[in-house]
Design brief:
elongated; 2 domains; alpha+beta; 11 strands; four-stranded mixed sheet; single chain
Amino acid sequence: MEQLKNKFEDLKQFGMQKLLDKTHKLYFLYGLSYSGYKEFFLISPSLPPSCESTDAITVTVGKRKDNQYTLAFKLNDNKFDEMFYILCSDFVESTRNIVNVLDGPRMVVQRYKKWQKLMKTGARLILNQAEIKGLAGELYFLLNKLSPNVGISEAVRAWTGPDKADQDFRLENCWYEIKTTSPGSETVKISSPEQLDTEMRGELVVLFADRTSPTDSKGVTLNSLYKHIVEEIRNYGKESVSERFANQLSKSGFIPLKEYDDYAFNFSDCWRFDINSDFPCIRRKSLPLSTGKLTYDIILNNIKDFEIK
């Protein structure tokens, strides 16, 4: 996002468009209209799907003399420029590993419609502190624990937490439920019996993280984790993984806003517990049929026998 912001700020001439990234498979341009409005374009040989404008952004489709199509996004109000930079950066990164360039307009419009839906529902742009810490724990585990073992592509594909699944990560033969808590915490909260009561063997992963200063060299933020994962996908990921990651972030309610730079965490330890048939958790079959939603706490010191060293 910062890179695109800097590029727009360096523009001095109205009515000029520049190529954004010559290494990208799609042809993205950025520029200023003759009236001084910020514009972002996709040039493609395929016709873009229909797409509605909003008060903040005007969307137009045109056909060029070379029979290519233009999908253009014009920012109507500069007070939304930070959001515009993030939106356009999302277009670029979510299509970074695109297989067929003819799918470009469809994928970009799909991303834009997700953003429209987010705005129309009145969703909060900033997650609350508990959500920030929880999401930071999932991204930290994805990047630093799971990806080194299975690869970034499989790690992103395994991330099911944003789908409201019972576990945060699911592989073919194993699952991981991530709990991020403060050092010294004696318990972690289990959101439902189904989180740990499964036939497949899995792990309860407890990450210990303290809130720290944004200037702490050991601290990580949602934005820094996001950027590192995007870079990993770009360098080592397989096709379509960028879009998968972008979709999961969208479901989580995360947009890489600069406000998240104020929430830094120092991850100090990681405890892993083997969840097998003997693990002391609440089993759905042991509950009365009349029991509905149920949450409970697990005392960490009482499950040391199941810790994976």
